[in-house]
Amino acid sequence: MKNLIQNIIGLLVTLAIALSFAGCSKEIDNRQYPSSVVSGRFLYNGQPVQILGTATEDDNMLQLTQTGPGTWNPGFIKMFAREDGTFTINTFDGDYYLRITPGRGPWVPNNDTVRFNLSSKKEGVTFNVTPYFWISNYASTYTDSVYTATFDLNKVVSTAGLERVVVYFGNTAIVDNVSRIVERGYTTLQPGSNRITVDLKTLTSAEKVSLAKTGLLFARVGVKTQGVRDLIFSRTVELKR
């Protein structure tokens, strides 16, 4: 009899726990994920601005603030950009304003604020920015493990100081000053036509092993302006081994 009572108590406890989890699951499953979309891009003279593509906690290029309906919560949603200067976020319908995170971006501070009512979709939000430097006519080759890049470095803001030019190598399509395996910096380059050559056969054994992990190889050129946190980049290119 004692064992029977113990078995019944055990079953009741198990049933109670199961019902508890079922209740929690139902509550979570009933939540609606935001399906409305906000998207746009950063442009300079109508051209996409190549920027940091890595999205760590404090690397949000944008701040999205909802002002309605209902009570306005002054907090903002962090919005991250892709390496090609585009951005997209899913959120709920409502009234919003969007602005660039103060102190972020390889451009002259931009205080533009875009206000809109979101009803399902808001596309084509554009921030026209003025970068301190600009990379144009970029081309690259990769032969016998030798990477060569040619490009024009344009000084857009006359008072800007060039800190360095950096070549980043990585084994995924996201390559920048945060996501990279190998980098080589140059502090003597000047605005105008430039040519950079890196012989990957001269890398250390550890660098070669790390770069070979995915079987893919990517490169990108970055330009750092003195006193500015973010770099402006060339487009990312895959180097065929």
Q: Please, could you describe this protein's structure?
A:
With 241 residues, this protein is mostly beta strands. Helices cover 15% and strands 43% of the residues. Strands 11, 12, 14, 15 and 16 form a 5-stranded antiparallel beta sheet that branches. The longest helix has 28 residues, at 2-29. The radius of gyration is 25 Å and the shape is globular. The N and C termini lie far apart (76 Å). Mean pLDDT is 89; it is low at 8-25.
Largest sheet: 5 strands, antiparallel
Strand/helix succession: HEEEEEEEEEEEEEHEEE
Which stretches of 5+ consecutive residues score pLDDT under 50?
8-25
State the share of residues found in helices, binned by percent. Answer: 10-25%
First-residue to last-residue Cα separation = 76 Å
**Estimated radius of gyration:** 25 Å
Number of helices: 2
Indicate the overall shape.
globular
Q: What's the β-strand tally?
A: 16
Strand content: 35-45%
Q: Give the averaged pLDDT, no decimals.
A: 89
Structural class: mainly beta
The gist of it:
The protein has helices spanning 2-29, 205-211, and strands spanning 36-44, 47-48, 62-68, 77-79, 86-91, 94-100, 113-118, 121-128, 133-143, 146-155, 162-170, 182-186, 192-199, 218-225, 232-233, 237-238.
Index terms:
4-stranded mixed beta sheet; 241 residues; 5-stranded antiparallel beta sheet; mainly beta; globular
Provide the fold topology.
Elements lengths: L1 H28 L6 E9 L2 E2 L13 E7 L8 E3 L6 E6 L2 E7 L12 E6 L2 E8 L4 E11 L2 E10 L6 E9 L11 E5 L5 E8 L5 H7 L6 E8 L6 E2 L3 E2 L3
Parallel strand pairs: 1-8
Antiparallel strand pairs: 1-2, 1-5, 3-4, 3-6, 6-7, 9-10, 10-13, 11-12, 11-14, 14-15, 14-16
